[in-house]
# Entry
Amino acid sequence: MIRPTAAFAATAAFFAGNASADLVSEVRLGVMQENVCVLDCDNANKEPGQSINGELLFNSPDVLGIIWSPEPYIMASGNLNGDTSFGGVGLRWGFEFAEGWTFEPSVGYVIHDGTVENPYPQGDPVGAAYAEEHVLLGSKDLFRTTFGVHRDLAGPWGIEFMYEHLSHGQILGDGHNQGLDNLGVRLSYSFN
# Structure
């Protein structure tokens, strides 16, 4: 099985070597703090650690002009402790609110390699210990929502501070829906 980080690295290398201003707009790479306490802190003590997060942004096709021209993306995130890694696709919007500063919300879909349900029967002490260490995501398919603030730096470079939430929202799955909240920083390189 190809890990999401390997897929991103291969894709980034391909596009970096063959970057076309007509296709790829930007490459982003950074570090995320996994499973932080944001609003619901019940599961924030599970699967702590960092991940490497990368994203390729594509120029917005004309057809997306009816929804404020979001840029399609492909992304991958690899957990450095061997916990939940994921990869997926989505749309990212950019709204400049001051010179050199952009607010960037996005929505997407990811597939992960983390825990869906507890493999042990309810009431089993081993199962209770397992549930204390693993986020039970309830589905292999998850929605990905992000909010970022991007700052242009010198030349084609930039930096982004980002919040990311993963959940199936009782739409892509049922049962457990503990979700993940991640915070991080990424460097960007624009081809435009």
